[in-house]
Design brief:
With 233 residues, this protein is α/β, with parallel strands linked by helices. Helix content is 28%, strand content 23%. It is built from 5 helices and 13 strands. Helix 4 packs across helix 5.
């Protein structure tokens, strides 16, 4: 089983690790936790514990933010953890295509930045019911549902609205306050990106590209997260 850990160190003072595992793009949420601290020693202790439990192939951390400070801490302490720092604000590496499942292929140059690419990848996983969740997490669902996307006016590339432009989302699954950062959603997408990084290393690039899809009528967000669109056990 391929395992990936996404770690988000929130500016609000919390740390969210999410572990995804599976094979052939059939993924399962293995772990979700909320650590009320971004203290480097405490976060390192948590990550070491999760690594011992799940042995992820990669630990993906957003480097443009508090995560960058934690990565520097790990480097100074000669950590042997398989950490990958990702600057989500920059354009993804322009490769011809990344094969996912079936005939599904996405093209890096379709996305404005890495943040847009990792959220779009997660969108496709939910759309094609490739993710199984052992429980419903209201905050995670609400955060994902509050994410909006658009085509960049100049480049036509897929772009995710900034966190400052997020809307308050309310449903029977939970509420996302637009003043807060979507820490759980970010960690989830970082974990999905980690799985893709591992998977990509074993694949031959393909050429077919998934087309930009319009949202369902009456729904303008990136994710239509609801009980009908998610598998739980």
């Amino acid at each position: 089983m391929v395992v990936s850990l996404g770690l988000d160190l929130g500016r609000s003072g919390s740390t969210i690790p999410i572990v995804l595992g599976g094979d052939e793009w059939k993924l399962r949420l293995l772990h979700l936790e909320n650590l009320k601290s971004v203290s480097a020693p405490l976060v390192e202790e948590l990550v070491n514990t999760l690594y011992a439990m799940y042995t992820p192939g990669v630990i993906v951390i957003e480097s443009n933010g508090p995560g960058g400070v934690f990565i520097d801490y790990l480097i100074k302490h000669n950590s042997a953890l398989p950490v990958v720092g990702v600057d989500t604000s920059v354009p993804p590496i322009d490769i011809d295509g990344v094969e996912l499942w079936g005939d599904m292929v996405i093209n890096a140059k379709e996305f404005y930045n890495v943040r847009a690419a990792m959220y779009w990848l997660t969108k496709l996983l939910f759309r094609d019911r490739r993710i199984t969740l052992p429980f419903e997490d209201a905050a995670l669902f609400a955060q994902l549902s509050s994410i909006m996307w658009m085509e960049n006016r100049l480049t036509g590339k897929i772009q995710i609205d900034s966190k400052k432009g997020m809307k308050t989302f309310k449903s029977d699954l939970g509420e996302m306050d637009s003043s807060r950062s979507p820490d759980k959603a970010d960690a989830f997408c970082l974990a999905a990106l980690g799985y893709a990084l591992i998977y990509q290393a074993t694949q031959t690039p393909a050429v077919q590209v998934d087309e930009i899809m319009e949202p369902e009528p009456g729904f303008e967000g990136l994710f239509d997260i609801g009980r009908a669109g998610i598998e739980t056990l």
